[in-house]
Amino acid sequence: MNKHKPAPKQLKPGEGEILTLLGEPRAIKVLPSENEGAYLQFETSHAPGMTIPLHAHRDEDEAFYVLAGEFDFMVGAEKLTATTGAFLFAPRGALHGFTAVRKNPGRLLITVSPGTQHERFFRGVVEIERTRRKPPESSELLRLAEKHGWVFPSSIVEETNA
Q: Which helix (H) or strand (E) holds 55?
């Protein structure tokens, strides 16, 4: 157990540790290590047309708050066009994904609980990009995501039939 009490933290707009994955920044607001492993919170910016494919998390819940722009979301069996101020919650095991729509980038504030697997995935992608000076191949991204508890529809079907 962590023996230190979490410290208060204040960040101005645009502040936080910036992790750039596949050309898109994630501004880390709070790390699990700063709150006794409770959650990870980060802000993302997504270019129009950018898609995060349908997936689920074995061990993490994920919440999305739209700060700006418009996104086509799928959470569970529900499709929703989410605009500024919309909130969505994907409990662990629920399929979810989204696409940024319109002509301007969209921004999300995302909270993941407990968030340690997301953080490890992000840092793994950043390390690959840093050492190779290019993005990981799709197959590498898939393996890294699966290593950190992400499940994709074909994997879900395979687990269900096992």
A: strand 51-57
* Alpha-carbon distances of 94 from 25, 60, 63, 133, rounded to whole Å: 25, 10, 12, 34
Give first-to-last CA distance, the chain, whole Å.
Answer: 36
Are the C-beta atoms of residues 112 and 52 closer than 8 Å to each other?
no
Residue closest to 74 by CA, chosen among 128, 14, 153? 153
H or E, element range at 117 = helix 116-132
**CATH numbers and ranges of domains, the chain:** 26-116+150-155 (2.60.120.10)
3-state secondary structure of 120: helix
Nearest to 99 by CA among 64, 144, 141, 61: 64
Q: How far apart are CA 68 and CA 72, in angstroms?
A: 13
As given in the structure block, the two tokens for residue 121 are 């995935």
3-state SS, residue 148: coil
Structure tokens at 68: 């700006």
| 135 class by beta-carbon count within 10 Å (0-12 exposed, 13-18 middle, 19+ buried) | middle
Give the model confidence (pLDDT) of 97-151 as tens digits. 999 998 999 999 999 999 999 999 999 999 999 999 888 888 899 999 999 999 9
Dig out the tokens for 140 from the structure: 């590498």
